[in-house]
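Contributing new records

If you add data, match the layout below exactly. Sequence lines come first and carry their own label; structure lines follow with theirs. Keep one chain per record. Anything else will be rejected by the validation script.
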Amino acid sequence: MKKALASSLFILALSVIVPAQSHRQQRENLRGLIGIMVSVEAQNYNGAYENIVKSWAEDGLRRAGIKVYRQPYEHVGQLTISISTKQGTDGAWIYNVSLSVCEFAQLDRYGKSDTDSAVITWETGYYGYGSDSHVDRRIAETEHNLLNQFIDDYRHVN
């Protein structure tokens, strides 16, 4: 009982993480990007799964009319899809799916510096909890929903 309560409180605490920027600010940060490069980081999965998710995301972006790049290029953001899972002692899974767009930018306080910093300009994510038989389906649904959120925001300003 105590473990179940602790797990529930942990999930609740994770679900109230507030982004550093408002949704409007994050959406506006996508303005002017000419395309996206996709990368996938999947904890506790093999490389084949990462390739499947990357291919699926790139196809979805192309279908939405967003140009997909394979190499870094000026005015191209890097969309990173991160997936992590952890199985509890009760057999249920806690999972996190997050999407973030990273760009290189020069910070004003450095003046005319030749050094660019990697900056997250857009991000969203979701923590979930599910049984062993449903967790893969829930993760896939979450990936789909978050990618659609990114596509909507991108298309809104470009």
